[in-house]
Write a structure and sequence with these properties.
Layout: H1 3-12, H2 15-28, H3 30-33, H4 44-62, E1 69-70, E2 77-78, H5 107-131, H6 136-148, H7 150-154, H8 158-164, H9 167-179, H10 184-201, H11 206-226, H12 229-246, H13 248-258, E3 261-263, E4 271-272, H14 279-284, H15 309-322, H16 327-343, H17 349-357, H18 372-391, H19 396-423, H20 425-428, H21 433-452, H22 458-474, H23 498-507, E5 512-515, H24 524-528, E6 539-540, H25 541-544, H26 550-555, E7 558-563, E8 575-576, E9 582-585, E10 593-596, E11 598-601, H27 607-613, H28 616-621, E12 622-625, E13 640-647, E14 650-657, E15 661-668, E16 673-677, E17 680-682, E18 685-687, E19 691-696, E20 699-707, H29 710-738
Parallel strand pairs: 5-7, 11-12
Antiparallel strand pairs: 1-2, 3-4, 3-6, 7-9, 8-9, 10-15, 13-14, 14-20, 15-19, 16-17, 16-20, 18-19
Helix pairs in contact: 2-5, 2-6, 5-6, 5-8, 5-9, 6-18, 6-22, 8-11, 9-10, 9-11, 10-12, 10-29, 11-12, 11-16, 12-29, 13-29, 15-18, 15-19, 15-22, 16-18, 19-21, 21-22
């Protein structure tokens, strides 16, 4: 192939643009990409939960287990059922391919994992823009805005942004389905749903809920505009079915878990799945209207940055004024307005009505996070605006007015700054948002007017604007990342308690430790693979109902208490750490498994009180049950039970029983655990309101206990069927189109 052919192929390739997007992503996140001095992990949720969750997943993958169950907090809880750890999200499956550092997942690796998320979002947005026939440079600009700024660029919860980045692909296939001809639209509708399913697999329910609302608005708009209601309804149904089917491997165990769990939502008390999240939680997390100035003025924000910058705002305005006849411009304009009205929450009647009447809407309590429903269409409008300007489809007079307006806005801001410095110099010098906005407006207006007057070449204006947008984004994205030099006050806790971890690993055996969460709030159980009684994570109702008395700690084998001070005066620590955290011995607790000879039946709500009032000797001999009572035998002698061969989703109990008694295991009872005594299935009972129990006959027996939840296996079958169905649709409709 000669040089001209290679040049032609390169010009037709998208690889250079994608490479440029990668470089822009690295530049925007240079603090964590190119140095080891900053981190995105130094936050309560990211350090306490996210890093330990990813560590637990990597550890299990590396030992050959799919991470379904997490055994190190609250007596064991479903890992896949919690949803937020995103164990079914394919991107997380790549993390185990990399080596650990001192037994832990590398913070540098997590930085690049975070950067990869943003690059994926940029690539997806670029694909949508190109599918709408926009020029490469305009598409790169929109992708840069969507993925490197705004919500995606400034949110540090990967389970959130992993869902949001699928929005461009969802709309790519949605718009193809709505405007397509022939039978190919079936495939596009199904692909739209599959991308929505990926957003659900990403970990958090809020982003998919907000995206679903945007899709619903799009379908309604398209039906009203073209009166193609059969196509609109069919597209919505197909997308919904395929989206739910692909995410079934996550949704079914999540539904099982959430119906048995508590959720802390900022209200007076935690709520169960069947209880509605109080609207006060939504109101507290609404986007304050004053923060809307933050769309063009950096660092004016509440909960999350709304900033898109002068460049995107001005180009989007050009699209709205000059290209209103284009259906996509009207659609994305509507979505941008809808996103603003939605995210201001309590200041909007719309959000209140949706909360009241729409099933599931009340679960999305951080309504300010819906700001991405505005930022995504704003980036698309900016793409249309720049693309039209490059094609000469925008009146010169309008472009001049936009440039002059930008300079005027800059002048107004500078006048305000002069006044502020005159009367309040000590305050004004710490205000960075307004001077930055004034500078951005000055630069944009100058560049734009120079281009209009021919002083900047047509072929380079896109690069100028991309560089200016990177300058705008660069002063917001990563602006709050803490420096190692100043101390990672939260994240450092994961690595500053090595002596505590060593002591516990040497002395716990099959027991657990309890912790004062004010002194050590991290999920060290997951991070360091030691069993902790409580944790900074979700928990099922059964253990919470009995969690806070001394006998429940005995039943769960709590042997040590980790805190700065003892529970009661006069106790001396058995270990004093260099970090100031001490370890205190708890009153004698039970082993991980034991046998009981008696069973008492009581009402569910009474069992926690009965346990609290019982003596340790009574608890060791007796199990409290609700419902059916198995018949046990009476005999002399002591049963011997041994807990061994513990794996993430299984363990073995060797039982030498004098006669037919019940074996109790100090793990949380949860659906999906199966018991086989010498290979024969037997029933698992919920003992003492929260523990596992099963009847074992007299003699020596091997009991195998395994977590095999039908919700996961049925969900996986449905998810695989969705992928197979998408492939069949793609092959069949492609063949029809060729004919």
């Amino acid at each position: 192939m000669n040089g001209s052919a290679w040049k032609q192929r390169l010009e037709n390739s998208e690889i250079p643009a994608l490479f440029a997007l990668f470089l822009l992503t690295v530049a925007a996140f240079w603090k964590i990409a190119l140095t080891d001095q900053y981190t995105w992990l130094d936050g309560a949720d990211t350090a306490f939960q996210v890093a330990p969750w990813l560590q637990e997943q990597v550890r299990q993958w590396k030992t050959g287990h799919f991470p379904l169950w997490e055994a190190h907090h609250w007596g064991g809880q479903s890992l896949i059922g919690r949803m937020e750890p995103a164990v079914a999200y394919p991107l997380n499956w790549l993390l185990p391919l990399f080596p650990l550092e001192n037994g832990h997942i590398s913070f540098k690796l997590l930085n690049w994992y975070f950067i990869t998320i943003h690059f994926m979002g940029a690539a997806f947005c670029y694909a949508l823009c190109r599918d709408l026939n926009c020029r490469r440079v305009a598409s790169v600009l929109a992708a840069e805005s969507f993925a490197l700024g705004g919500f995606v660029g400034n949110n540090n919860w990967p389970q959130m942004i992993n869902g949001v980045i699928w929005m461009p692909l969802i709309f790519l296939f949605l718009l193809r389905a709505l405007r397509g001809e022939g039978r190919r639209w079936w495939f596009h509708a199904a692909a739209c749903g599959v991308c929505g399913g990926m957003a659900l697999l990403a970990g958090h329910h809020q982003a998919p809920i907000f995206i679903a609302l945007a899709v619903a608005v799009t379908l309604l708009f398209w039906g009203i505009s073209f009166q193609t209601w059969s196509r609109v309804v069919s597209t919505g149904v197909i997308a919904g079915l395929f989206g739910g089917a692909l995410a079934a491997v996550q949704l079914l165990p999540a539904r099982e878990y959430y119906h048995l769990a508590l959720r802390w939502v900022g209200s007076k008390d935690p709520v169960t799945f069947d209880q509605k999240v109080p609207y006060t939680s939504h109101a507290a997390l609404s986007f304050h209207p004053i923060s809307l100035f933050g769309i063009v003025v950096p660092h004016v924000e509440a909960n999350i940055s709304p900033f898109i910058g002068i460049t995107i705002f001005a180009l989007a305005l050009i699209a709205v004024i000059a290209l209103w006849e284009r259906i996509e411009v009207r659609l994305f304009s509507l979505l941008a307005v809808f996103g603003i009205v939605l995210c201001i929450g309590t200041y909007s009647i719309l959000q209140g009505v949706l909360y009241a009447v729409l099933p599931g809407m009340e679960k999305a309590r951080n309504i300010s996070f819906a700001i991405f429903v505005f930022q995504f269409p704003a980036a698309m409008l900016a793409c249309f605006g720049l693309d039209a300007a490059l094609k000469g489809s925008v009146p010169i007079l309008l472009m001049k007015r936009i440039g002059i307006a930008s300079l005027g806005f800059s002048a107004v801001l500078y006048l305000l700054l002069i006044g502020r410095f005159t009367f309040e110099p000590d305050v004004a010098k710490y205000q960075t948002g307004v001077p930055l906005a004034a500078l951005y407006a000055l630069l944009f207006g100058s560049i734009f007017l120079l281009w209009v007057h021919g002083r900047i070449a047509q072929r380079t204006i896109g690069y100028w604007l991309i560089a200016l947008l990177l300058f705008e984004i660069g002063n917001v994205t990563q602006s709050l990342y803490p420096s190692r030099e100043l101390g990672w006050n939260i994240l450092d806790g994961l690595t500053h308690h090595e002596d505590v971890v060593r002591f516990l690993k040497d002395h716990l055996e099959d027991g657990r430790y309890d912790v004062n969460s004010l002194n050590l709030p991290y999920n060290l159980g997951d991070w360091d693979e030691i069993d902790q009684y409580d944790g900074y994570t979700g928990v099922t109702v059964n253990i919470m109902k009995m969690a806070f008395n001394i006998n429940s700690r005995r039943l769960f084998g709590v042997r040590y208490y980790v805190a700065n001070k003892p529970r009661t005066e006069g106790e001396t620590p058995v270990f004093q750490s260099s970090s100031g955290v001490n370890i205190y011995a708890e009153p004698p607790s039970f082993p991980r498994t034991w046998a009981v000879k008696k069973i008492e039946v009581a009402k569910e709500e009474l069992i926690p009180g009965l346990i609290g009032d019982s003596t340790p000797e009574h608890l060791r001999e007796t199990a409290f049950l609700t419902g059916d009572k198995p018949n046990l035998e009476t005999c002399n002698g002591e049963d011997v039970v041994t807990y061994r061969n513990v794996r993430p989703t299984s363990y073995i109990v060797d039982a030498d029983m004098r006669c037919k008694h019940m074996v109790v295991v100090g793990n949380t009872y949860f659906p999906g655990w199966t018991v086989r005594v010498d290979g024969k299935p037997t029933r698992m009972y919920e003992v003492d309101r929260a523990l596992e129990g099963f009847v074992v006959p007299g003699g020596k027996h091997k009991v195998e206990v395994t977590y095999r939840p039908s919700s996961v296996f049925v969900g996986a079958a449905i998810s695989i069927s969705a992928l197979i169905g998408l492939g069949i649709l793609g092959f069949a409709t492609r063949a029809v189109r060729r004919q």
